[in-house]
Structures are given as structure tokens and as C-alpha cells.
Design goal:
The chain is mostly helical and 366 residues long. It has 14 helices and no strands. It has one domain: Amino acid/polyamine transporter I (Up-down Bundle). The two termini are 34 Å apart.
Length: 366
């Protein structure tokens, strides 16, 4: 079947990566940026994007040396099979936990804004089952859906942002550069962790039809999302100011509520933002399920990946229900913040250095 074709082009990879990166921070990122550096928060987002591009560069340099392997295989080749096995299982656990927390945030937001009378367990289960169904269709099916969702999400979103500009007071961004350089670096680092979807590149090598363009794809995707995040943070700050932005749990959602679209027939414009976010969040949850099942498939050397997905569904579901509310969920995510950087930077960097020293893998030039 066509859906069993697991090779995708670079354009499809860019669409998937942009959707996965965007879903992680759009609702909370303006508030996190302002909390980190007040009116300089948007400048810290620029630093965060540059750091994220550096993480992507390290990961893609590593993946290009082993174009036919995923993280499971090349970590075993570089650091021995036992160490590679431990790292792969650690990666699996990380994907499952963060997918569960993202799913809980999704459920809380949808319940508060769209379905207040619906039990959150039903909302979470519905998203999880739909995402797991697409996982069973293979990587190429994800890529084709990603191309469609890209235009559905970003073209209307950018158009809506334009209508917010009349309400913006860019004097709220002043004074500039009041943050110390040390605090700027720390804030940029903290915000760069919202680009956690970069680590999924560690598992895509065998599915790309032209891995020589992998670095370019990662840079384009990261900077596209970074520019959109910076613009969103600037507009939120210009409309609400520092104090009001900090008080809003979901400032971007509130921003959408004050938009006045000429000739619009939709009473509540923030619903549009929820729809766009649900679509991009679906992509991230689906990606986490797909790659966690892929890790189990590669570790156990099982041919069929489809039947591995269903056992993961109740695990992710139960973990997502551990936190009491959305505030506790975000607190737990902050506690596990140091765990994010492992597969975004430190482990890929160690693997790349060891591979170079041992002269393992192949370069694109060769």
C-alpha cells in the first residue's frame, strides 16, 4: 500500500518538524519569555532560537554520519550495545512522559475553553486514540498529513496576527536591553528547551530520501518557528504590557479573544487559535507515540511496528492523569527541565565526538 512507503522528502520533514516545534510553546511561550526577562523577553527568544539551531546542527551532523540508522543503532555502534540499549530505553521513557504531559495540557485547555462539561478523561482518550490510529499508518502517512496541516495552521494564524496590530502599543517594549548578559544567557537557555521536538531528528535518518539536506531542513524549520514565536511575543507584550502578560496563564489565547476581524462571522475568534493549536499539538503527540514505538521496534528487532502502539496508549493515558491540574503539570515539566537537554544536546554531542574519534560512520562528502 502507498501508506507503507516510509521514505519522505525534505519538504515533508520540514512541515512535520515545524508543526512539532510550534505546538510546544505557542500558548505559554509569551508569558514564559516575559517572566524570564520582562520587556526583553522577546530578545531572549531570539537567543533561544539561535541555541536551538545549534542543537539541531549537532544532531544533524550526527545523523548524517549514520544515514541508515536511528538513534538505537548508531548509539550502540558508538558506545557499545549495552550503553546504547540503556540510552534508547531512556529516550523511550522521556518521549512517553513528555507526550503524556503534553496530552494533559491539551485536555485542560480544551476542557476550559471548548468542552467545560466533558470529563477530561474523555478528551484525553479521544486525542490519544486518534493519534495512535495515525501512528499505525506509518511515517509517510504522517508526512502527507503534515503537509496539509501546515497550510491549515499557519496561513490563517499569520493572517489573524495582522489584525491584532491596531491594538498594539509598542511603547510597552521599552526600555530595551535592561537584562544583564548573564541573565540573558540563562533565560535564552531556559526558553530554548521549548524546542524539544528537535530531538526527534535523532530517529528520522532511515526515512529521509536525501539526508544531505537534513541540516538545511532543521535550520529552516527552527528559524521559521523562532521568528513566529518572536513576533507573537512582541505582539502579546505590546498589547498587554509586562504585568498583564505575567498574570495571564494563556496570554496568546486572550489575545485572540480581542481580535476584530472585518466581516467575520465567528463570534469568538480565540476558538480559531484553539483549532490551530489542536492541530499542531496533535502532530507532536502523534510524533511522540510513533517514535517511542519505533524505539521499541528497533530495540526488540520486531518487523511490525503497528501492534506496538496500542500497549503504549494506556501507559500514556495513566501518566497524563497523574497531575491534579494544568498548574501542577507545568510545574512537573519545569522540574524535568534538565532532562530535556540530554537528548537535545549533551548526548548527541558526546556521540558525535566519540564517533569522530573512533572514525565511525560516513560523511556526506564521502
Amino acid at each position: 500500500m502507498f501508506s507503507k512507503n516510509e521514505k519522505i522528502c525534505i519538504r515533508q520533514l520540514e512541515s512535520l518538524l515545524i508543526l512539532d516545534l510550534y505546538s510546544r510553546g505557542v500558548l505559554f511561550l509569551p508569558r514564559l519569555a516575559v517572566e524570564a526577562a520582562n520587556q526583553d523577553g522577546w530578545i531572549c527568544l531570539i537567543g533561544a532560537t539561535i541555541l536551538a539551531a545549534f542543537y539541531g546542527f549537532i544532531i544533524t551532523r550526527l545523523v548524517r554520519r549514520f544515514p541508515n540508522d536511528t538513534f538505537v543503532e548508531f548509539s550502540a555502534k558508538i558506545l557499545s550495545k549495552p550503553v546504547g540499549m540503556v540510552l534508547s530505553l531512556l529516550f523511550f521513557v522521556k518521549l512517553i512522559i513528555f507526550a503524556a504531559f503534553e496530552l494533559r495540557i491539551f485536555g485542560e485547555v480544551v476542557k476550559q475553553i471548548l468542552l467545560p462539561q466533558t470529563p477530561i478523561e474523555v478528551i484525553i482518550a479521544s486525542m490519544l486514540l486518534i493519534a495512535s490510529y495515525l501512528v499505525r499508518k506509518g511515517f509517510e502517512a504522517r508526512a502527507r498529513l503534515g503537509e496539509i496541516l501546515f497550510f491549515i495552521v499557519f496561513i490563517p494564524l499569520i493572517s489573524v496576527l495582522i489584525f491584532v496590530l491596531p491594538d498594539a502599543d509598542f511603547g510597552n517594549l521599552q526600555p530595551f536591553l535592561t537584562t544583564s548578559f548573564t541573565h540573558f544567557l540563562k533565560s535564552s537557555y531556559d526558553l530554548s528547551l521549548t524546542y524539544i521536538a528537535i530531538e526527534l531528528l535523532l530517529l528520522v535518518g532511515p526515512f529521509i530520501n536525501d539526508y544531505r539536506k537534513l541540516e538545511k531542513a532543521s535550520v529552516i524549520s527552527i528559524f521559521f518557528v523562532g521568528i513566529l514565536n518572536v513576533i507573537s511575543a512582541i505582539i502579546v507584550l505590546a498589547v498587554f504590557g509586562v504585568v498583564q502578560t505575567k498574570r495571564q496563564l494563556l496570554p496568546f489565547m486572550v489575545l485572540m479573544g480581542i481580535v476584530e476581524i472585518p466581516g467575520a462571522f465567528i463570534e469568538r475568534q480565540e476558538i480559531l487559535m484553539i483549532i490551530f493549536w489542536i492541530l499542531s499539538d496533535f502532530s507532536f503527540i502523534n510524533a511522540s507515540l510513533y517514535f517511542s514505538s519505533l524505539i521499541i521496534k528497533r530495540v526488540s528487532k520486531i518487523e511490525d511496528q503497528g501492534f506496538l502502539v496500542l500497549p503504549l496508549v494506556p501507559i500514556v493515558y495513566l501518566i497524563s492523569l497523574f497531575p491534579d491540574n494544568i498548574v501542577q503539570t507545568t510545574d512537573w515539566i519545569l522540574v524535568l527541565r534538565s532532562f530535556r537537554i540530554l537528548f537535545m544536546f549533551f548526548i548527541p554531542l558526546v556521540l558525535l565526538l566519540v564517533a569522530r574519534l573512533r572514525k565511525l560512520g560516513e560523511t556526506v562528502e564521502k
